[in-house]
Every structure is written in C-alpha cells, then in structure tokens.
Amino acid sequence: QGQLVESGGGLVQPGDSLRLSCAASGFAFATYVMKWFRQTPGKEREFVAGIDWSGNSIDYGDSVKGRFTISRDNSRKTLYLQMNNLKPEDTAVYYCAAPSKPVWGQGTQVTVSS
What is the DSSP string of the chain? Predict the structure, then answer.
C-alpha cells in the first residue's frame, strides 16, 4: 500500500525559505511520478509541483514558478520541495503524493506571516 510522511513545515516570515521533505516507504518510490499539492480551508486542493521518476521532467503550478524547486532522491526514497521567497499566500497544508498509486501523506502546515 505504501506510506508518505511529510516534514519541514513551520511558521516563517515573508521572504524566508523552507524545505519540505516527504519520506516514502512500502512501495516502489523510484518508479512513480511524485507531486506536491497544497490546500487551505475553503479552497480546492492546488497543484504545486510534480517530478517524474528520473527527475528529468518537472512541472510547477503557476503561482510557485521561479520560487519553488521540486527534487527527489530515489536512493533515500525521499521527495523534496525547496520553497524560497515565501509569501503569505503560500500558507497552506502541503501534501506529497504518488497520485497514480494512489498514496498521500498526512500533510505539513506551512504558515507565512509577519
């Protein structure tokens, strides 16, 4: 079935950086497209970034392009999201997922506030 566990969220100020991690277990992580999503109360889940198994094909949501970087380490079964120049509108619960499996993490809160 598999499991994903996110970490690295927290409270930061505008302009700060954070790196989220997503540790995978129980499934063949290296063979799956992995994605980050985020959600705030009352809003639909938003696509943040996606990466194919090799790391050679990457896509970002329009609102994070140029600020966020997705990466993966298949040897460590870990997905990352480097978030730079954070803005208050980035505040959300961030989820990692292997949507095609499907398996989802429990989410990690990111709050950007002065």
Answer: --EEEEE--EEE-TT--EEEEEEEESS-GGGS-EEEEEE-TTS--EEEEEE-TTS--EEE-TTTTTTEEEEEETTTTEEEEEE-S--GGG-EEEEEEETTTTEE---EEEEE--
**Residue 73 pLDDT level (bands cut at 50, 70, 90):** very high
Query: In Å, how far are 18, 19, 39, 42 from 81, measured between CA atoms?
Result: 8, 6, 15, 24
pLDDT tens string 23-39: 999 999 999 999 999 99
